[in-house]
């Protein structure tokens, strides 16, 4: 027996929404991981074929990612991965410093013992990744730690805002950024100090350390960009 028309329509809508969500998540993962670089043009036909979906769900995914600040649409040109400027990255860091200070204070005041154990376990995993010089794993754990800290702060609106800022910050990329060999060990030490302050219920110290951690990250970003600019300028100077 055939389904009623209304029921068939409902199923089609659910299938379309599910496909849109799957496509959106896959594209977002590629953007955040660097698989799709800022400025890259998304080919609608190729992606529809790759994902084996019609253009409808794909376009819905594009719109959702544009609203999330990860894509931009140019009339008569297509859809592109957003690239943000140093100035915009600066603004994101400044806002994150304020939010992270709030998170540190909230956690020190309210976190449960289980939450402290969870954060310490992540710190230990980050230490292992640092020792193994596994930058990809360290970066993943770093993002996981901060995201979990924001979740444990207990403010859902903050979680949404924070995640958008973190995703947008991944759009700031410069080629050949020189890696600071001390950056990961320093970052690990800073995280340990933050979690220790939270576990000790020291609200003022936890908030201050969180803010300073973000400010140091901002300073490292500026130092890396300056180093690249100097190197590129030197290369241009010596070009015959």
UniProtKB/TrEMBL annotation:
Keywords: DNA-binding, Hydrolase, Transcription, Transcription regulation. SMART domains: FCD, HTH_GNTR. Residues 17-84 form the HTH gntR-type domain. One of its GO terms (molecular function) is DNA-binding transcription factor activity. The keyword Nucleotide-binding does not apply. Pfam families: FCD, GntR. The keyword Transcription applies. CDD domains: WHTH_GntR (cd07377). PANTHER family: TRANSCRIPTIONAL REGULATOR, GNTR FAMILY, UXU OPERON TRANSCRIPTIONAL REGULATOR. This is Phosphonoacetate hydrolase PhnA. The lineage of its organism: Bacteria, Pseudomonadati, Pseudomonadota, Betaproteobacteria, Burkholderiales.
